[in-house]
Amino acid sequence: MAKEVVLAGTQSYMTYVFLRKTSVATGAGQAGITAGQTSASYIRLGASGPVAIPMVAGTVGTYGGSATQGAIGEIKTAAVPNSTGLYEFHVPNNAFASGARTVIVFLSDAGNSDSWEPIQLQFQMLADDPSTRLLDVNTATYTVASSIGKMVVDRVDTNINSRLAPAGTLNTVTNLTNAPSITLSQTQLNQIADTVLMRDWLVIPLTPAPPQRSLWNAARFLRNKWSTTAVAGNVLVYDETDSSEVWRAALTTDAAAIPITSSDPTT
């Protein structure tokens, strides 16, 4: 007998049942069973006896039971091929009232000319969702050495505190503003400067564009392509593709000077 797990107080619960013919040995399902041909009851663990379930016709996919009534609807083979004998059973809501750990539902033939084998459905009821119980429990209760809970709490406390509070345990938000300043050694400062100076401009995104009067734009005139002939009376400085202008400056010329027309690096 298969067991399904439900929460206590579950309402409008529907499940599949397979009703097998007793007249054949092939295990074939019995089609055409109606609510009037179905006898049903349930018993809750600790109860003095079973509770009869009045059965009504059900529509597949829509709960048709009530607090006391159950419903059954046939899965038609036109909708689901090879489903002969498959039905949807709607459990009465009272069956899952809190107070019992286990509920068993009994279904049997109530006079069909081609009878079907009786079946039992077992339900284990949980008082609450185990995942919610785990997440909501006070971590102070995890005190057993070597337990999963104690290990998780210890590791979370140790790892988070060690990363967020170098000077000690992070207890309040004021620790963030009162944390000690960090002093870099000369070697570390040199490493930062070296990284800036040796940065490959080709891997720096071209957008967003840097401010016009920035160190990068100024240094572009020393390394990138520039031209005094593209626009008369101006020097144009290009980006790292050597094709798009990033800034220009108006030129003052002197006919006696030696003309320089461009600078186009090859490496």
Protein architecture, described:
- With 267 residues, this protein is of the alpha+beta class.
- Among the domains are: 3-128, Sandwich (Immunoglobulin-like), CATH 2.60.40; 204-263, no CATH class.
- 18% of the residues lie in helices and 24% in strands.
- It has five helices and 13 strands.
- The strands form three sheets. Strands 1-9-8-3-4 form a five-stranded mixed beta sheet, with no helix packed on it. A four-stranded mixed beta sheet has the order 2-7-6-5, with no helix packed on it. A four-stranded antiparallel beta sheet has the order 12-11-10-13, with helices on one face.
- The longest helix has 17 residues, at 148-164.
- It is elongated.
Q: Which key terms come to mind for this protein?
A:
267 residues, alpha+beta, 5-stranded mixed β-sheet, 4-stranded mixed β-sheet, 5 helices, 18% helix, 24% strand, elongated
